[in-house]
Amino acid sequence: MSLLQRIFQKYTGVLRSLKAVYVINNVLNAGKLLRNRTLYRHYGVSKSVFSPIGFSDFKHNPHSDEAPWLDRPERLVLLENNPEFQAFPPEIQTEIRRFEREGYMILNRFFNPEDTSQLNKTVDEMLESGKTGYNYTGRKIFNLWESSELARECFFRNPELTNLLSFLLGRRVIPFQSLNFTRGSEQRAHSDAIHMTTQPQGFLIATWIALEDIDEGSGPLAYYPGSHRLPFVSTEDYNSGNGTFTIGSDSNRHYEDKIEEIIAQKGLEKRIFLAKRGDVLIWHSNLLHAGTRITREGATRRSMVCHYYAENAICYHEMSQRPAILPV
Ligand SMILES: O=C(O)CCC(=O)C(=O)O
Fold first, then answer.
1. CA-based diameter of the chain, in Å?
2. Fold of 3-323
């Protein structure tokens, strides 16, 4: 975890809004950002790899059509004729088709009860001993994979899963961050693409793992099938409040208002994921999703979310206008 990430895990004050603070952190992580130079040249960005970066920097991208293969107009023909696709069992092929069409797929009972129980035990023990804790949201345990081998090797870097994700994006994925929850997030609808963004667009993917059976009262995950085909929303599409030197302090709230408006305008269908322990839902970077209200007092909702960037894309954070610092 970078120095800034460590500090900002708990901190919610004014420094969060200063672009200069991020620039300092970028310089401290020079080793991980310098490799972006080649990508910046390729995608027509003429600024330092330590500077703030955002959607507006890609207006002159000469390669803006380099979308992931399952987002291209010819995707259906590409998919059905792909030998790797044909080698998947029929039930996985059905789910991959769903991913293309609806922006998500589900792997039933992908993780076994022993591993999910062990991970829950690890989380409880680490919370109790203070070896981990919730970040400023009070709900998310950030990057447990760094301190738990089980979280890292069995879940975050699971080879079968990362191979599947690489297949879906058409490029090798780089495990980027993990979030563990013991109760529902109640987070309003959003797409990951505003928080973890790529150029070309679409080279991020996520897994949502149920670590226990999830019921209606525990604030299950909700998602909006097909919303991945809507235009990507950037800070230019809502009142971010960003200035030359600052990030708007209400940017996230205004973004979520904007998404709520889009959902209502388009009349998007909302589905609830009443997962069984071990189930995995994979979502497209632009699929809208949310944590629903917790209606049963004291309900737990143990789950883990893992985010993956793809190789050879510029990875950044549109909302905070920062380049992403990848762990490798
Ligand atoms: O698990 C949830 O309730 C939502 C998690 C989420 O939205 C995310 O990690 O992007």
1. 53
2. Jelly Rolls (2.60.120)
CA 175/CA 287 separation, integer angstroms: 19
3-class SS at 234? coil
Q: What number does the ligand 1 atom closest to the CA of 184 have?
A: 3
The strand pairing partners of 179, in sequence order, are: 142, 305
Q: Where are the domains of the chain?
A: 3-323
Q: What does each of the 328 residues of the chain score in pLDDT, given as a tens digit? A: 666 666 666 666 777 788 888 888 888 899 999 989 999 999 999 999 999 999 999 987 777 678 999 999 999 999 999 999 999 999 999 999 999 999 999 999 999 999 999 999 999 999 999 999 999 899 999 999 999 999 999 999 999 999 999 999 999 999 999 999 999 999 999 999 999 999 999 999 999 999 999 999 999 999 999 999 999 999 999 999 999 888 999 999 999 999 999 999 999 999 999 999 999 999 999 999 999 999 999 999 999 999 999 999 999 999 999 999 999 8
* Ligand 1 centroid to residue 187 C-alpha, Å: 7
Amino acid letter, residue 191: S
pTM for the structure as a whole:
0.94
Ligand 1 environment, Cβ below 6 A? 179, 181, 184-185, 187, 192, 221, 289, 291, 303, 305
Give dist(CA 309, CA 315) in Å, integer.
7
* 3-class DSSP state of 272: strand
